[in-house]
TrEMBL record, chain A:
<dbReference type="InterPro" id="IPR021074">
    <property type="entry name" value="Formate_DH_dsu"/>
</dbReference>
<dbReference type="Pfam" id="PF11390">
    <property type="entry name" value="FdsD"/>
</dbReference>
<protein>
    <submittedName>
        <fullName>Formate dehydrogenase</fullName>
    </submittedName>
</protein>
TrEMBL record, chain B:
<dbReference type="GO" id="GO:0016020">
    <property type="term" value="C:membrane"/>
</dbReference>
<dbReference type="GO" id="GO:0043546">
    <property type="term" value="F:molybdopterin cofactor binding"/>
</dbReference>
<dbReference type="InterPro" id="IPR006657">
    <property type="entry name" value="MoPterin_dinucl-bd_dom"/>
</dbReference>
<feature type="domain" description="2Fe-2S ferredoxin-type">
    <location>
        <begin position="18"/>
        <end position="96"/>
    </location>
</feature>
<dbReference type="InterPro" id="IPR041924">
    <property type="entry name" value="Formate_Dh-H_N"/>
</dbReference>
<dbReference type="InterPro" id="IPR050123">
    <property type="entry name" value="Prok_molybdopt-oxidoreductase"/>
</dbReference>
<feature type="domain" description="4Fe-4S Mo/W bis-MGD-type">
    <location>
        <begin position="248"/>
        <end position="304"/>
    </location>
</feature>
<dbReference type="InterPro" id="IPR001041">
    <property type="entry name" value="2Fe-2S_ferredoxin-type"/>
</dbReference>
<dbReference type="GO" id="GO:0015942">
    <property type="term" value="P:formate metabolic process"/>
</dbReference>
């Protein structure tokens, strides 16, 4: 990948975006936070973004906010890719 | 077809509900109290002769032509300034009145040229009409005496004579034809609110003067055209009328520039557009216009327009003109090949906020039903997507709450992150009118926008916050209102969730949200913030108007929710004069969102995961829609760079110029195998396109636009498409070539389908629009004529939701390398990426983008006004010329992005709103320094753009 034109990899961006979402829900009432993060990602992230997120979640030191990690079990796993 | 003429009642309507009855020329007339006798007469169909009166401005009583007699009263009062009263008996035509009127006209004409036959106003001149109406047959005084008509008398120069002022590109001022009725001066004051015109001199020396005896172009004139419209003679005349002649028919249509959505009469001669005149019955603009809608339509016939489809293998090849059929086949084959090779989700589309609802609906339908995925997005992504998210969360509807008329009932206005006098000029004029009548104004903006201080308008408070700290400031306003007990408990208990309110109230009351605590971050003096909060909470009807300065931040959605909180806490929702009002950027950005342009939403803001909603479309379209959200524009570009997104159909949007981080956009486009651009011009995005489909202008098609107040306005075809087809026809042909069975023969059928499938549009049809002029959605069984004001009894979601809004600093931070904050905006005469306005004479006002920089920052860097400067961010660098000003604070710089050579978006970063991925255009850390000229990127880009615009014309056989 041409790094000059793509300063951040898509994975880096997804981590950043997920953490931004978590940052918002950290400030919301405790009982809404986990559902909030998962719901937001389910509603707005296209399957290949969520697939990439699950791949990131499997890594150690993935840079994800603990709230995203906690929300992971509520995030829908994308089905098989459509032809 | 004929020319549409609105009735001129002579004086404005009275708002009184008390009715009175009088007798005029033997007719009993009942009118609201406060109506002038002139207007009452016109209500009864009696035209009292008049020159200085017109109903767009208040009565003035100077021309002495509209005199009447009233039984039991002495003299001959002017009907325009005399109020109708119960029981009056009025005569508009008596011998005495006839004599006076004839005498008055005789005096007027004795100082007016008699070149009627060759005059541009011939056939549309009120002076001519009045001479006829009073039966003027002779001018006893002759024309030789003291006059303003002739340049010379007896070979001696006439000091009273002035040459024509042709400095404005769109209209001329011919002082020799002026009758000094002051209509232009009053239109400039009362309608536009600029106060650029005055009457200089006294008595016979009186004349209209732009500014201090300046040329129009050098004066404060903003070229809105109100004076030209008001002028009863040929003194102020559109140059197009001078060139072409008087129009012979007209149609009412809707402006294709900003989200105000002004109604215009397109006045035509055959298929030639003579002029655009604001339509008095237009409910968004009430007969007013700005320089763009009124005059800047020349792009529609500009030589740069591409009229034939073109394709090329590689983006480095020159374009090759092809037939429409070949173009459709090529696109269909390529898209199917890519899907076969890379999967169903490897292509997508972008709908246009400049095209009609019907066209937008078809593009999303093509993506969902034809491509079989949800990869559709629209340029709202980069402007108001946070509005949709934030207002939906808090109120339950992704749209503003009011109509524009509401501003006439407001007492305190907050304008935050918007610059209405430049971005939404006609709304600004309506706002200024209300402010001049006493409403108070609070401006929250890093820059001292015109509204902060302009003639006869001054903000009570200006909170010049540091870019990126909106959430801190708005939350702090709520802190003051809650901690000082100024919230509207009754409203909140009735309309909102009380527990959520208490949770939120406890949150905003925390000491860290006090104005004193946030001053360090925001730079706003705490006392000013406190006083502003008190004014808003206690000043009567409070309305909040906001723009992209709110949404285009990494906390854009949070700010929208903070604004909604503030409105609910102060009880400012659900009636006239209040509300939360997003000022939408483009003409149809509201409509494009309504029509299901977002990758997660079907038409009517219904999530794709909803089975019942999908079912409606599955059945109607005979397909199985995907239940997963698709890619948003930034995600499409990421996926393209990753190699999983390979083809795109872009209708009427220039993402390369308008979207942030140009280099990333370019890399994404370059990685795709089939980029289809459907546009008027070879725009910047087309540099990376493989197929170009020529588009049509708003003058060339039927359809509807939906403006910022949810108003669905008709767009009417006044000329044949120069490229042969309206955009909806092109999309339909493409869909048919891809195997879809579409058979629309008129856009009204597309709207019928929208109404059939979308509850909030259930009652909308072209018949209804024809009858009502326009309607505001929701328009259905519950609201058959639409909904001017929302959330009246209860919120769309039931109870209003208070949401905690914690300030989080953007990661785009200043530091030693990039010590200044860049923010971006618009200017009056230009529009968005400038593709349209740059191709009109509007360039005389703004031929290049300039960098506004405070004198303190300029001095430190040795920069003088007009110097070329280099502006650098973490993303890239570009050069432009500096403009030294104190409108921006030290530490903040500002520029517009209307010109592609500036490439302002080379500098902006890829940070986005946390909820919607709306780019953070409004905050970029930069450094500014002296420069010798264009940057390497600009030079390289220019060359690439030049190369990619080459068109290989097929040679004629004869050659």
């Amino acid at each position: 990948m041409d790094n000059e034109n793509h300063r951040q990899s898509t994975a880096d961006k997804l981590v950043y975006m997920a953490n931004q979402i978590a940052t918002f829900f950290h400030t919301q009432p405790k009982d809404e936070a986990v559902e909030g993060v998962a719901g937001h990602i389910n509603n707005f992230w296209e399957p290949r973004m969520r697939t990439q997120l699950f791949a990131i979640l499997e890594k150690n030191d993935n840079g994800l906010d603990p709230l995203v990690v906690e929300a992971a079990s509520h995030i829908r796993r994308p089905g098989p890719v459509l032809a | 077809m004929s020319l549409i003429h609105e009735i001129d009642f002579g004086t404005p309507a009275s708002r009184s509900e008390k009715m009175i009855t009088l007798t005029i020329d033997g007719n009993e007339v009942t009118v609201p109290e406060g109506t002038s006798i002139m207007r009452a007469s016109m209500e009864a169909g009696i035209k009292v002769p008049k020159l200085c009166a017109t109903d767009m401005v208040d009565a003035f009583g100077s021309c002495r032509l509209c005199l009447i007699e009233i039984e039991g009263r002495n003299g001959t009062p002017a009907s325009c300034t005399t109020p109708a009263m119960d029981g009056l008996v009025v005569h508009t035509q008596t011998q005495r009145l006839k004599d006076i009127r004839k005498g008055v006209m005789e005096l007027y004409i004795s100082d007016h040229p008699l070149d009627c036959l060759t005059c541009a106003a011939n056939g549309d001149c009120e002076l001519q009409d009045m001479a006829g109406a009073v039966g003027l047959r002779d001018v006893r005084y002759g024309y030789q005496g003291d006059n303003h008509v002739f340049a010379k008398a007896d070979n001696v120069a006439n000091d009273r004579w002035l040459p024509k002022d042709e400095s404005n590109p769109y209209f001329t001022y011919d002082p020799s034809k002026c009758i000094v009725c002051s209509r232009c001066v009053r239109a400039c004051e009362e309608v536009q609110g600029t106060f650029a015109l005055t009457i200089e001199g006294r008595g016979f020396s009186s004349r209209v003067s732009p500014g201090m005896h300046e040329h129009f172009i050098d004066s404060e004139c903003v070229s809105c055209g109100a004076c030209v419209q008001a002028c009863p003679t040929a003194t102020l005349t559109e140059k197009s009328v001078i060139q072409i002649g008087q129009p012979e028919h007209s149609k009412v249509t809707t402006c294709a520039y900003c989200g105000v959505g002004c109604s215009f009469k397109a006045e035509m001669r055959g298929e030639e557009l003579v002029r655009m005149v604001p339509y008095k019955d237009g409910k968004a603009n009430r007969g007013h216009s700005c320089v763009k809608g009124r005059f800047a339509y020349g792009y529609s016939t500009h030589k740069d327009r591409i009229l034939n489809p073109m394709i090329r293998e590689k983006i480095s090849d020159p374009w090759r003109e092809v037939s429409w059929d070949e173009a459709y086949k090529h696109v269909a084959n390529e898209f199917r090949r890519i899907q076969y090779q890379y999967g169903r989700n490897s292509i997508g589309g972008i709908t246009s906020s400049r095209c009609t609802n019907e066209e937008t609906y078809l593009v999303q339908k093509l993506v969902r039903a034809g491509f079989g995925n949800n990869n559709v997005d629209t340029c709202a992504r980069v402007c108001h997507s946070p509005t949709g998210y934030g207002l939906n969360k808090t109120f339950g509807t992704s749209a503003g709450t009011q109509d524009f008329d509401s501003v006439e009932h407001t007492d305190v206005v907050i304008v935050i992150g918007a610059n209405p006098t430049d971005g939404h000029p006609v709304f600004a004029s309506r706002l200024k009118k209300r402010l001049r009548k006493g409403a108070k104004l609070i401006v929250i903006d890093p820059r001292r926008i015109d509204l902060v201080r302009s003639p006869h308008v001054a903000a009570s408070y200006h909170l010049p916050l540091r870019p990126g700290t909106n959430v801190a400031v708005v939350t702090s306003l709520s802190h003051v209102i809650v901690t000082e007990g100024l919230f509207d408990e009754k409203f909140i208990r009735e309309r909102c969730d009380w527990d959520e309110f208490q949770d939120w109230a406890a949150f905003v009351s925390a000491p860290e949200h006090s104005p004193e605590a946030i001053e360090q971050l925001t730079g706003v003096p705490p006392q000013t913030l406190r006083e502003a909060a008190r004014l808003f909470a206690t000043g009567g009807n409070g309305a909040i108007y906001y723009g992209l300065g709110v949404t285009e931040h990494s906390q854009g959605s949070t700010t929208v929710m903070a604004i909604a909180n503030l409105a609910m806490a102060t009880g400012n929702i659900g009636r006239k004069g209040v509300g939360v009002n997003p000022l939408r950027g483009q003409n149809n950005v509201q409509g494009s969102c309504d029509m299901g342009s977002f990758p997660h939403e079907l038409p009517g803001y219904r999530h794709v995961s909803g089975e019942a909603t999908r079912d409606i479309f599955d059945k109607l379209w005979g397909v199985k829609l995907q239940d997963e959200p698709g890619l948003r524009i930034p995600n499409m570009l990421d996926a393209a760079v990753d190699g999983t997104f390979k083809g795109i159909y872009i209708q009427g949007e220039d993402i390369l110029q308008s979207d942030p981080d140009t280099k990333h956009v370019a890399a994404g486009l370059a990685a795709m195998e089939c980029v289809v651009v459907h546009d008027l011009f070879l725009n910047e995005t087309a540099n990376y396109a493989h197929v170009f489909l020529p588009g049509s202008t708003f003058l060339e098609k039927d359809g509807t636009f939906t403006n910022a107040e949810r108003r669905i306005n008709r767009v009417r075809k006044v000329m044949s498409p120069k490229n042969g087809f309206a955009d909806w026809e092109v999309t339909q042909k493409l869909a048919q070539t891809m195997g879809l069975n579409w058979n629309y023969t008129h856009p009204s059928q597309i709207m019928d389908e929208v109404a059939l499938t979308t509850p909030s549009f259930a009652g909308v049809s072209y018949d209804l629009l024809e009858k009502e002029g326009s309607v505001q959605w929701p328009c259905n069984e519950k609201a058959p004529l639409g909904t001017p004001i929302m959330h009246i009894e209860s919120f769309a979601r039931g109870k209003g939701k208070f949401v905690r809004t914690e300030y989080v600093a953007t990661d785009e931070k200043t530091g030693p390398r990039f010590p200044l904050l860049l923010t971006t905006g618009r200017i009056l005469s230009q529009y968005n990426v400038g593709a349209q306005t740059r191709r009109t004479d509007n360039v005389v006002w703004h031929e290049e983008d300039r960098l506004e920089i405070h004198s303190h920052d300029a001095e430190q860097r040795g920069i003088r006004d007009g110097d070329w400067v280099r502006i650098t961010s973490r993303s890239g660098e570009t050069t432009l010329r500096a403009l030294i000003t104190d409108r921006v604070s030290p530490g903040v710089v500002y520029t517009t992005f209307h010109h592609p050579t500036t490439q302002a978006n080379v500098i902006t970063t890829d940070f986005t709103d946390w909820a919607t991925n709306c780019p953070e255009y409004k905050v970029t850390a930069v450094q500014v320094g002296a420069s010798n000229g264009p940057s390497d990127w600009q030079v390289k880009y220019d060359e690439q753009a030049r190369q990619s615009r080459r068109i290989a014309h097929t040679l004629d056989a004869a050659e």
